[in-house]
Amino acid sequence: MNFLFNKYSHFNLANIVTFFNITCGIFAIYFLTHDEFLGAALFAWLAGAFDIFDGKIARKFNLSTEFGIQLDSYADFLSFVIVPAMFIYFAIFDGKEQFFSMTFIAAVFVYYVISGLRRLIQFNLNANEGEVEKYFTGIPTPLGAILLWIVYLVFLTGYINEYFVLFFMVLVGYLLNSKIKIKHL
């Protein structure tokens, strides 16, 4: 069991928690593709919990490595960029193709995914092993996912329409790479 606390093991405790994040993202996608939105939401939120704990464990037990930094960003891309985009698509737009310009919808979703990916790559380029910045530059992808979740919940109330959801996705995509400073918790 020494590998759990071996900084250079790819299966140390922090990385295993990150693998659980990835697993939750995969399960969320499974549920999305089967129109089981409650199951998808549950696994998306579990992925968020694992994302919080992997960093805390890495810092507490000095397990932060370049591999772990990269792994965490891949997990974040899946769980906090791909899953929320798929959630919005399947929950709001799937089956309504005849009412909306699918080219426009595709452009918005591609913009959001590329924005999230760009944000994570830039974060990795600026990250140093074992260090935590006091502020994020641009909103972190988990916060972007939470904002999309909130807009989905507001959409369910009927106060906003599909076009506002698309506008909000573009806005969040922009904020992911903005110069806004967000205090690191």
UniProtKB/TrEMBL annotation:
Transmembrane segments: 12-31, 37-53, 74-92, 98-114, 160-177
PANTHER family according to UniProt: CDP-DIACYLGLYCEROL--GLYCEROL-3-PHOSPHATE 3-PHOSPHATIDYLTRANSFERASE-RELATED (PTHR14269), CDP-DIACYLGLYCEROL--SERINE O-PHOSPHATIDYLTRANSFERASE (PTHR14269:SF61)
GO molecular function: CDP-diacylglycerol-serine O-phosphatidyltransferase activity
Similarity comment text for this entry: Belongs to the CDP-alcohol phosphatidyltransferase class-I family.
Gene3D superfamilies found in the cross-reference section: 1.20.120.1760
EC number from the UniProt entry: 2.7.8.8
Keywords, comma-separated and alphabetical: Lipid biosynthesis, Lipid metabolism, Membrane, Phospholipid biosynthesis, Phospholipid metabolism, Transferase, Transmembrane, Transmembrane helix
Membrane topology of the entry: Multi-pass membrane protein
GO cellular component, one term: membrane
Subcellular location: Membrane
Protein name as annotated: CDP-alcohol phosphatidyltransferase
GO biological process: phospholipid biosynthetic process
Pfam families attached to this UniProt entry: CDP-OH_P_transf
Organism: Arcobacter porcinus
Domain of life: Bacteria
